[in-house]
Each structure stands twice: as structure tokens, then as C-alpha cells.
Amino acid sequence: AVGSSPGGGGALQRYDHRTKQIRLVTVWPEMYTGLGAESMKYRFPWTFPILFSPHDSGVLYTCGNHVFRSTDEGESWETISPDLTRNDPTKLVPSGGPLTLDTSGAEHYCTIASFIESQHEVGVFWSGSDDGLLHLSRDGGANWTDVTPDELPEWSFITAIEQSPHDAATVYVSATRLKLDDYQPYLFKTTDYGQSWQRIDGSFPTYQDRTQITRVIREDPAAQGLLYVGTETGLYFSLDDGASWQRMESNLPIAPIYDLKVKKDDLVVGTHGRAFWILDDLTPLRQAAHVAGDLRTRHAQAVLFPPRETERLTLGWSVNMFRGPGKNYMMGLGSAITFTEGKGEHGEQRRIMLDAGENPPQGVIIYYWLNEAPTASITLALLDSENNEIKRFTSKPADTTADAKSNDKKEEDPNAILPAKEGLNRFIWDMRYPEATSVPGDLTTENSIAATGPRAATGDYVLQLTVGDTIQTECFRISADPRVHVSQEALDAQFQLWKQIRDKVDETHQGINKLRKIRKQLDIWSEQAADNEQFTAAANAIKEKLTAIEDHLIQTKAASAGDRLRMPSKLNTKLINLISIVAAADARPTKQAYDVYGHLSGQIDEQLALLDGVIGDDLAAFNDLVLAAKVTPVNV
Predict the structure, then answer these.
(1) Tell me: the pLDDT tens digits for 182-237?
(2) Nearest residue to 412 (alpha-carbon basis) of 355, 357, 475, 343
């Protein structure tokens, strides 16, 4: 790494993660404090290229005004190039004065700013200097050729050299002249090892009416001609090899972008603020050219992209331990991480970290393109490999005056969270099956992650997007965490027990809701027939039995979620907590987990059987009594 260290300019550090020691392996560790660059044996800028050979990890390169090679981790260095800069004496004297000089090392010029070895061919090197020279060696550094583009103005700073992953002769170059008050973009491409160059910045857009300083260019390794450029204000991309450019409008803040790295299906952005920003999935960009042609030729209403394979990662048990409104804390990272929870743009649950970076989305990332914003709702269905529907999501219908008034009093559909704007849309399926029925007002289970539906097991799944009369289908796969060695049989067993628990919780909560519905009607009936002792006595007897059943199934006296530490756990919370035991890791459930499930299920079945008995016997007799009096009976 480059870092502040003793020993003069070009401080190069070798860090040992095991011992935590830094060994200085600077090419020429002679101090030059107070002297200009003209006095130095080698000139190094404030930051300089460091590169391991893509063909041999034991070969290390670094650059000052020459290219250096080491085969012993920096214990010794070999010079493999002449001075590859303009070496202009007028640019080597120290600036500053008269009280002090600018000799900290940040003011060194005529140095190599960018350097690569071809990923296709051993010993093919490209070097770009901070004073506008581009050199090529095709024989391991024995000979170097000046291949500077004719249209690159003198004294340009060559910020990046990008070898095309798809062609050995193709290279892209970005440059800037910002220190000369020239803020134009400079982007070049060669397809013949630098014998000729083409400028590809002619259509590069301005931002807020200002031209863009181009700092880095990269080509997508999976899509030839898909280019990414980092500028002083943001990220740009081209779908057509630089013929046209678009700004990446996203949640990336305005910041100078110094480097870009495509890692599998993600784009990692390094900014001047020493921060990282990750674009989670490049699939839609990689297919955008195909989509554009698709829409023109078939006039399709929509295009559904095939999702990339998603790894099923299990977070630590404490990650979702504390949830709900206000500030919450995540303890599984070694220190408390603070976050809040709320709803996103489309009503989906969203977690906002207050003192930590955000994780990638926990789920399957789904992209689809809408040619125009639909007037009616669209739907997205998720199915298993046997085409059994798991879950269905819808978009909110387009607002109209009539609909807006009629929908004011309707309960909001929790699954109506599908975005449906013109252009590219993104939706995250959290890999969850439907949740168990909830009990309104139950503070002991409110916001419990364990109350959510079971997480899909590894395997193949199907997407169906319906827009108008058109249905599009794509397949995708959920794979196991590559760090975990677990069989498909074990994961299937985990899913099945999780689903059984969810179903029993659902049955329990439906029974509680039914019980409360009956009791509420009996309360109303008792008030209306307060003078009829026979009716009120029968109603009160039934309510006593219902309350006794309820007290076994659910805690009714909790005043807050924290009361779980004060009030005894009841059957529903015990059963819900068992989900956390089963789902804590990617593993087969323990025997004792099955035993506890059987133990709790048996007790719940007893109470639900008592409830059925009250409904079938006591309530039926009560209804016969009130019907004889020609009064409306209790509805179950």
C-alpha cells in the first residue's frame, strides 16, 4: 500500500495481517525533504501505481518515473523502463517560498500516473504519465513505444488505462487537464495496440451545465461495449462502446470517483472521500441494449429480466432481535449498530443504518422494464419449481379522482408495493413465504422477525410478471451460502419444520381472532339485553370459558413489547420463538426442536379443541336460546 512513512518519497508498505507489522519496501528510500524533484534519483507522485501481475501473483510492479518490478515482495527492485515522462526540468523545481517550500511529496510531477499489464498477454505493458505521455511495451519492458493519441493535448493527466477484457488489442484511456483550467472530458479507444485512436467523449453529457472531468474508465467483463466512467461529480455509462453516454441517476452522492471495479455482477465505486458505493446488480445494464431493440421491434409493454443467482445468506441471530419504530440496535457485529425502520417508496419495509454502512439487499433482486407507466395494477408472482404460487405482489393502481375517494377507507394491501414507473423498475423479494395471521394489538409478537414466513430453501424458482394481458416468465435460482457446507436435505428439513411452525402459529392466531370476535359480539349482546338475566348469564358463562382459553394461548396483559420480561410467555410466543431456534443457522433442526414443537402443538390443539367445543355446544345452545326469542344470534 501507499502510505505516509519514513524514508523519502514513494513510500511503499507491505502489511502483514498476521503480525500487524508494516515492512517498508520503498524502491529508493532516500529522504529528500526540502529538495525539489530534480534532486531525486526516482520521482514518485503522492499516490502511484501498484500492480500484481495478472499472470503471476509473485510478480509485483510499481511506478515512479520508471517502471519497477519485484519478484521477492519488494526486497529488491529491477528497473524495466526508461523515464516514461516528459522529464521537463521546469516542472521539477520546488514550488512555494519564500518562507517554506512545497516539498512534502505531493508536488512531484513528470511521473507515471497509470500502469497496467495486459490480462491477455504476459509482458505487454501500458504506461500513462501525469504529463500526457502514453507508452506501450510488448516484450516485457525491453522496448517501449510512444503511442500517445494525437488528439490528447500536451500536459494531460492520464488518469486510467483499461485493457478490454474481450480483446487484447483494445484499450481505453481516460485523461484530464483540470490543472490547466480545462474541464473537458477526454476518453480514447484503440483497437490496434495504439497505432490509431478514436475519441469516444463526443456525446459525453454535462451535469448542471458543466462539462465533466473524466477520472476513470472501465469496460464490463460480461458485456462487450458496456463502459463505465467515473467523473468529478458522479458515474456514467455507455451501452454502445462510447457512442452515447448516460448519467447513472441513483442514490450515489455527488463525489469525485477515482476508481471502478466490476466484481462478478456488482460495480464497486471508490470515491475521493475514501468511501465505497456498490451498485448491487449490473444485470439490467448488461441487457439494456437487447431490451431497447426488443421494445422497438416488438413494441412490448414490458420486459422481465432473468434475476441473477442469489445466495441464501443467514444473518446472525441478534441482527433482527430488536425491531419496531424508533432507534434499534444490532449486536452481532462486535459493537452496537444503530438503525431505524420504516417504509420505503413503495411501502416495503426498509432499514436505515445510522452509524454503519448498508448491507446489500437481503433477497432476490428483480428488474423489469415498463415501456410506459400502466394505468392498471401490475402483478408479480413467485412460484416454486413445481409452479405452486408462493407469493403475489401488486402495484398500486394509478390514482383517479373517483378511485381516490372510494379507496380512502379501504385497508391498504400490504403486498401492494410493486413499483410501476415508466422505464426500469427494481423489486427485492426477501425470499420469504407468507406470514402467519397476526393478532391485532398483540404487543408480544409485534414486529417479531420470527413471525414472518419461512425463508425459501435453495433450489429453482419461477417469476411471472403480468402487465395488462401480457405474462412474462423467467427462472432463477437460490443457492446456498458458499461458506456453509450443508445438504439440500437438511435445508429442506429446516424449511418444512419452519413452515409447520408458521402454519400452527397461523392456526393459533386465527383461533384467537375468532374467539375475540365471538366475545365482542357477546359483549354487545349483553349490553343490549342487560335486563334479561337468562341471556346475560349464558353469555357470561361462555365469555369465561373463552377468556380461560385465551389466557393459555396469548398474553393479554402486556402493556408494551418489553413486558415479555415481566409477563409469562404464552403458547403463541413460545411457538413463535421456536422459529428463531430452527432458523438460526443453515442446518437441520435439532431433535429437541422437533420435540418442543410437538409439545407446544399438543397444548395448542387442546385449547383449540376446547374452543371448538364452546362454539359447537355452548354457543350453539346460546344461539338456540336467542333465536327462540327472535333475536339475531352470534355469528362465528
Answers:
(1) 999 999 999 999 999 999 999 999 999 999 999 999 999 999 999 999 999 999 99
(2) 343
d(CA 510, CA 506): 6
C-alpha–C-alpha distance, residues 356 and 361, integer Å:
15
8 Å CB contact between 502 and 453: yes
The last residue of one of the domains, among 219, 242, 271, is: 219
334: domain CATH number? 2.60.40.1930
Residue 580 placed within a domain: yes
User: Is residue 449 located within the same domain as residue 557?
Assistant: no
> Do 329 and 183 lie in a common domain?
no
Residues 236-264 have pLDDT tens digits of 999 899 999 999 977 888 999 999 999 99
Between 201 and 330, residue with greater pLDDT: 201
Using the predicted structure, report yes or no on whether residue 555 has a pLDDT greater than 50: yes
| Cell numbers given for 470 | 401480457
The residues pairing with 220 across neighbouring beta strands, listed in sequence order, are none
- Run of H or E residues at 187: strand 182-190
- Same domain assignment for residues 52 and 183: yes
pLDDT value of residue 299: 61
Strand ranges (E), 17-92: 22-24, 50-52, 60-63, 67-70, 78-79
Residues 390 and 528 in one domain: no
Q: Are residues 576 and 608 in the same domain?
A: yes
- β-partners of residue 112 are 129
Residue 511 in domain: yes
* 390 belongs to a structural domain: yes
pLDDT at 450 over 50: yes
Q: Are residues 444 and 301 in the same domain?
A: yes
For residues 462 and 494, membership in a common domain is answered with no
Kindly state the DSSP code that residue 635 receives in the 8-state scheme.
P
12: three-class secondary structure by DSSP: strand
Residue ending a domain, among 172, 199, 219, is 219
458 and 505 share a domain? no
Angle between helices 571-583 and 488-528 (to 10 degrees): 160
Number of structural domains (the chain) is: 3
Residue 622 pLDDT more than 70?
yes
State the chain's mean pLDDT as an integer: 88
CA distance 623 to 420: 50
C-alpha 157/C-alpha 148 separation (Å) is 12
Residue 396: pLDDT band with limits 50, 70, 90: confident
Q: What global pTM score does this model have?
A: 0.77
pLDDT per residue over 592-612, tens digit each? 999 999 999 999 999 999 999
**Lowest mean pLDDT: which of 338-342, 381-385, 509-513?**
338-342
Residue 452 has pLDDT above 90, yes or no: no
User: Pick from 486, 622, 605: which is nearest to 541 by CA?
Assistant: 622
* Helical pair 488-528 and 533-553, crossing angle rounded to 10 deg: 160
Rounded CA-CA distance 512/237 in Å is 56
Q: 265 in a domain, yes or no? A: no
Range of the domain at 353: 288-480
Residue 180 CA: distances (Å) to CA of 131, 183, 193, 200: 11, 8, 29, 22
Cα distance between residue 444 and residue 569, in whole Å: 9
Q: What phi-psi label fits residue 127: left (phi over 0), alpha (psi between -120 and 50 degrees) or beta?
A: beta
Residue 587 predicted with pLDDT over 90 = yes
